[in-house]
Write a structure and sequence with these properties.
The chain is built from 16 helices and 19 strands. It is an alpha+beta fold and 573 residues long. The protein has two domains: 330 residues, FAD/NAD(P)-binding domain (3-Layer(bba) Sandwich), CATH 3.50.50; 177 residues, Succinate dehydrogenase/fumarate reductase flavoprotein, catalytic domain (Flavocytochrome C3, Chain A, domain 1, Alpha-Beta Complex), CATH 3.90.700. Strands 1, 2, 8, 9, 10, 11, 18 and 19 form an eight-stranded mixed sheet that branches. Strands 12, 13, 14, 15, 16 and 17 form a six-stranded antiparallel sheet that branches. It binds flavin-adenine dinucleotide.
Amino acid sequence: MSTSSVSDIPHEVDLLVVGSGAGGLTAALTGSLSGLSVLVVEHLAEIGGTSARSSGTVWVPDNHFMQDGAFAGDRQRAETYLEALVGDRGSREMWQRFLDAAPEMIKALAPAGVAFAPGLTAVDYRQDLPGAGMGGRPLYPQEFDGRRLGSDFERLAAPLRELMLFGGLMVTRPEAEKLLKADQSLSAFWLGARLIVRFLVDRFHHSRGTRLVLGNALVARLLFALQTRQVPVLTRVQVDRLTSEGERLTSAEVQIEGRSHAISARKGVILAGGGFPASPELREVHLPKPVAAHTPASEGCDGSTIKLAQAAGAMLGPDTLDNGQWFPSSLLMRDDCSIAVFPHIVLDRAKPGCIAVDQTGNRFVNEAVSYHEFVRGMYRAHAKAPAIPAWLIATRGFVARYGLGVIRPRTPLLGKYIRSGYLKTGKSVAALAAEIKVPEEALEATIARFNRFAATGKDTDFRRGENAYERGNGDPQHGPNPSLGPLDKGPWCAVALHPTPLGTSRGIAIDPDARALGADGQPIPGLYVVGNDAQSVFGGEYPGAGGQLGQAMTFGWLAARHAAGHAFKRQEG
Ligand SMILES: Cc1cc2nc3c(=O)[nH]c(=O)nc-3n(C[C@H](O)[C@H](O)[C@H](O)COP(=O)(O)OP(=O)(O)OC[C@H]3O[C@@H](n4cnc5c(N)ncnc54)[C@H](O)[C@@H]3O)c2cc1C
């Protein structure tokens, strides 16, 4: 059933969900599975928000895949980890609630087809802290055939164009790595052939490939489950206000195609608008200076749901250090003059043979730390010397082997990137230094010093490549340190890196059932807030791959259960 027509608007439902990312759709599905009538409204034309363009990884310590063997007993380790990571920046009650509920949420959604595979080798980001996971906590959504969605496939938000092959073919990171060996391995060749044939066939009927992985597979699975249960997901709906009777929030006034409608929500309204990464106004108020001008998050995440909650009496949680979740990104002007925000997640920074320098030509951070910590390093350094934007520097040989930002490995000609201003190059270090306007002697000295670290495998300045996370993102074929390689032979290349919020961590204060809290600290009856609209339960920290979606889905699940009268209680023992 396609779920977009104005004639589908019910005037009364049990649960109204505002926002169609993973948080909102999980809440909607849980509400429906609990027997509630549910309506999802989304203000964009497409469904899925930032979740649909994400990698789709969901961080769930002590999940059911981890019950036996090396990962057994993870709950205790996860508590130790979050205790050390969050400290007094977040409420212990809230992250304990996350640890209690997240594994149950994953089990509860599985029969509805929201299926995952464990990331057994994906280690947590803060390996310097006790209890950091050595694998198993991140879960990856299983591949989904987008054709099963019927006409709703075209309403599913696409991933970032630059993260797909040929502008429309999705691949996972292991698949991308395998495809690079297509001229050396028969199985890699067949994988490439299969994916391309399927893509070409898809393109006869669809705007992009229908073999969905990553965040698109996650959102598609949730959407398909909602379709099956005949839960409408209406797009292009603007919510003007939430209205109350007495203390209880009871309805919303919405506009569809220029006409106003009142929708009453007997059991509650769940706000799941994805925070404010796309709001220049709220970025200015809450994010550190210099304020990020771009975001890879969905343009729909404009803070409007946070404002709706505030207008209904809900309050913001406390400042979380910098109130953002961060990617360092490079910016590319596309042929149509739009700007591509390309997140440097793991593919280049940690590989051997590149460094990041500030505008004085000095390294300022361990390049291989998580994207979140990298940007925090940029802000810390910028307080002393200009590091925003910073420069990611590598040799032409590195770019050919590993790629750099949007430039894929083995790209033969770089002219288009140079002409667009994305890539800066120089035949010598001096020429590159002049091109990017950093002092030549400083850059020469930085590279010479780094090359000595590469030879010994020990970075005595920043300790790059010393832990499992950093080594895992390096090159296993390279030694002695998989993340440290020399920058020894030009030509030289550089791209500018900017801080960009992939999400935001300051949001509406909620209780353990995701009920919004008012100024008196008491829950506002009938109002729930989940995902990035809610205050981060990790106090703005990023524990590991999937930390954001893990929270969004868990509290979406908790909110809907509470609204349905089945509030979650931890089973003791
Ligand atoms: C490239 C990339 C990769 C990422 N990979 C991961 C990952 O693997 N794991 C992870 O945990 N995190 C990842 N993230 C971050 C993660 O995607 C987000 O934090 C998460 O999707 C937020 O989920 P959400 O449900 O809160 O909001 P969203 O998924 O952003 O959904 C919010 C929806 O609400 C809509 N909306 C907003 N306001 C209104 C309104 N007033 N009325 C109606 N609709 C409204 C928006 O248009 C949007 O569709 C990634 C981010 C990016 C950019």
